[in-house]
């Protein structure tokens, strides 16, 4: 008699999960196995993973601790699973997400299908025009401090699948391995860097914040992207009150508001003459603050509370250009540089250029200056002749303004 597995899992689901993980690329975990290495014997590797998971005997290895710099300074520690474990997590995500996603609220934007950061920025801009005050909040170390007990309580509300529950319990308690090999056991949190972690954190905050706001403060609009959130209030008094209540709510859920990233902001503009210490806030790479604007007929100027790429975002973009070392790539032709850099430039234009796109001109100018350096090193006739290099590139930009993604925006000839 043929023995059956304790859990019925379609093998095709593992193939789908593998393709998604492979498309996302990513670094190796504690076993040092890359995606390329896993792919060399993908069929057998996937079969072994399917066999262990459908038998209930899959135990995840430790996650690898990797420190990455934050845009605002400091470091963030990610927990990187192995390639095999990422595939296993993706399998569970493919099963669990369709069950949970319909229950999430419209104003939760982070890590969700058919939701985007730009949509969150857009609705925030609109609400800042409608409401005078904003409570900006950030949850301190969300991924590190999520209560396993409360998370599992939320999970039980949405699935009875014992196989899914078993896997998630094991992932939550999988240890973390530091660079020196030290193993750290975890009693709270879900590793930031895991495939399943964003879904689990959204599930946790759905009850800790989203539903709580809906039930207790239905007249206060809010927007949340992962651990960053905004509340729009009519008065400063209302903002202070709801912030106090929010701090108590998170405390009861074993979380804490970040003291340096949580504040009350006045959305100051031409029609708002009040005073407040804070009249700006950062959200999803944009800074919202009072800015000079003109009406649609371009006849009169006024002050509007609007978003534009933040200083931290601009700094990060310039740093990425620097890492490309374009000025030293003299083996490349200009069209090669365009092919290499245009995806990066288009990404910035499509995201940061959506609101107050002229604010990106400093980044465009910085990029163009690197092209001047490249031209001076590439061509002997331009060596040590900066103005000649500028004229050379300016002529190319005039003749072929679409060669680089940003050349037909702003001032393409701004090479100085």
Topology:
Layout: H1 11-24, H2 35-39, H3 42-55, E1 63-69, E2 75-80, H4 83-100, H5 117-130, E3 133-138, H6 142-145, H7 148-156, H8 162-173, E4 176-177, E5 183-184, H9 197-216, E6 222-225, E7 228-233, H10 236-252, E8 263-266, E9 281-283, E10 286-294, E11 301-309, H11 311-323, H12 334-352, H13 361-378, H14 386-399
Parallel strand pairs: 1-4
Antiparallel strand pairs: 1-2, 3-7, 3-8, 4-5, 6-7, 9-10, 10-11
Helix pairs in contact: 1-3, 1-4, 7-9, 11-13, 13-14
Give a quick summary of the entry.
This protein is an alpha+beta fold. It has helices at 11-24, 35-39, 42-55, 83-100, 117-130, 142-145, 148-156, 162-173, 197-216, 236-252, 311-323, 334-352, 361-378, 386-399, and strands spanning 63-69, 75-80, 133-138, 176-177, 183-184, 222-225, 228-233, 263-266, 281-283, 286-294, 301-309.
């Amino acid at each position: 008699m043929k023995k059956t597995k304790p859990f019925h899992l379609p093998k095709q689901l593992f193939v789908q999960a593998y393709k998604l993980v492979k498309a996302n690329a990513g670094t190796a975990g504690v076993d040092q196995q890359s995606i390329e290495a896993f792919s060399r014997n993908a069929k057998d590797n996937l079969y072994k993973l399917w066999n262990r998971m459908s038998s209930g005997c899959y135990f995840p290895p430790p996650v690898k601790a990797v420190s990455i710099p934050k845009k605002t300074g400091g470091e963030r520690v990610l927990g990187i699973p192995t390639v095999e474990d990422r595939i296993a997590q993706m399998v569970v995500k493919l099963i669990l997400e369709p069950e949970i996603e319909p229950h999430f609220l419209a104003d939760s934007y982070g890590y969700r299908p058919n939701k985007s950061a730009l949509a969150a920025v857009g609705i925030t801009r609109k609400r800042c025009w409608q409401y005078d005050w904003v409570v900006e909040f950030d949850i301190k170390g969300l991924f590190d401090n999520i209560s396993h007990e409360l998370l599992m309580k939320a999970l039980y509300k949405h699935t009875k699948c014992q196989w899914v529950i078993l896997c998630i319990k094991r992932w939550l308690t999988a240890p973390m391995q530091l660079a020196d090999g030290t193993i750290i056991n975890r009693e709270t949190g879900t590793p930031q860097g895991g495939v399943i972690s964003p879904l689990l954190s959204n599930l946790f905050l759905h009850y800790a914040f989203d539903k709580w706001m809906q039930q207790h403060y239905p007249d206060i609009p809010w927007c949340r992207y992962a651990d960053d959130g905004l509340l729009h209030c009519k008065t400063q008094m209302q903002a202070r009150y709801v912030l106090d209540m929010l701090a108590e709510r998170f405390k009861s859920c074993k979380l804490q508001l970040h003291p340096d990233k949580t504040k009350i902001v006045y959305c100051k503009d031409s029609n708002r003459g009040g005073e407040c210490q804070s009249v700006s806030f950062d959200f999803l790479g944009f800074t919202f603050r009072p800015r000079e604007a003109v009406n649609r007929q371009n006849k009169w100027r006024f002050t509007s509370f609007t978003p534009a790429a933040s200083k931290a975002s601009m700094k990060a973009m310039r740093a990425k250009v620097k890492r490309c070392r374009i000025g030293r790539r003299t083996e490349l032709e200009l069209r090669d540089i365009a092919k290499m850099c245009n995806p990066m430039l288009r990404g910035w234009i499509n995201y940061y250029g959506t609101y107050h796109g002229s604010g990106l001109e400093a980044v465009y100018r910085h990029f163009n200056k690197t092209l001047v350096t490249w031209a001076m090193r590439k061509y002997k006739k331009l060596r040590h002749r900066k103005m000649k290099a500028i004229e050379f590139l300016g002529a190319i930009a005039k003749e072929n303004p679409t060669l680089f993604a940003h050349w037909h925006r702003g001032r393409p000839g701004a090479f100085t």
